Amino acid sequence: MPTLEGPHADVLQEAVAEEARAQRALLDGDEATAAALFREAAATYRRSWELAPPRSFGRLVGMLKAAVIGGDAGEAASYARAQVAEADSATAGYVLAIAGLASGDDAGAAVAAEAMREGSPAFVRAADAIAALAARDADRYGAALRAIVEDFEGRDEHLTGVAIADTALMLERLAAARGMAAGLASPLLPSG
């Protein structure tokens, strides 16, 4: 796993390691342990956010992903929304879009997803899926999720060295709550 840098990188590294353990438990089929470990990772991401300089929104994204996958997104979504005033950057938009979907604010999620389009191609793919979920468009969501999975499978290694497509899995958990899961994001091992 690569070494992370920046203020209080040790706490962020701890969160990433906890998330990796949770993903391994999920890959081993131990849903209960995985859920508990994802919740621990979410708490550590939150602590990392609280120690980091303002606008380190990626730490909130990590917190939300772990909380959603761990099945306990409600409080994390409320906390994230209280921390981010507006979607004035792609990453801030990502925070608000996930929090919106997790809390049932589909209109807010769709608006926030538009800010994500100023980010990387991966952010744009996630924005497509979030907008489709918010619009409850299952066909468009399925196509967007397939694009996320194809991008993940096309890389040699997940950016943090863990073995599942966490964005796809998070989106599938949010889609399942809407009866829209595409069935593409059981834990996904990278090809190769």
CATH class equals Mainly Alpha
Instruction: Supply the number of structural domains.
Output: 1
Give the uncertain stretches in residue-range form: none
CATH topology: Serine Threonine Protein Phosphatase 5, Tetratricopeptide repeat
Number of helices: 9
Broad structural category: mainly alpha
- Approximately how much beta-strand content do the residues carry? under 5%
Mean pLDDT: 88
H-E string: HHHHHHHHH
Shape: globular
Sketch the major β-sheet.
none
| Radius of gyration over C-alpha positions, nearest whole angstrom | 15 Å
Give a quick summary of the entry:
The chain is mainly α and 192 residues long. The chain contains 9 helices and no strands.
Structural notes for this entry:
By secondary structure, this protein is mainly α. The chain has a single domain, classed as Serine Threonine Protein Phosphatase 5, Tetratricopeptide repeat, CATH 1.25.40. Helices cover 69% and strands 0% of the residues. The chain has nine helices and no strands. It has helices at 9-27, 31-51, 57-69, 73-83, 90-103, 106-116, 121-135, 138-154, 166-176. α7 runs parallel beside α9 (166-176). The longest helix has 21 residues, at 31-51. The protein is globular and about 40 Å long. It starts with 8 loop residues before the first helix and ends in a 16-residue tail after the last helix. 45% of the residues are buried.
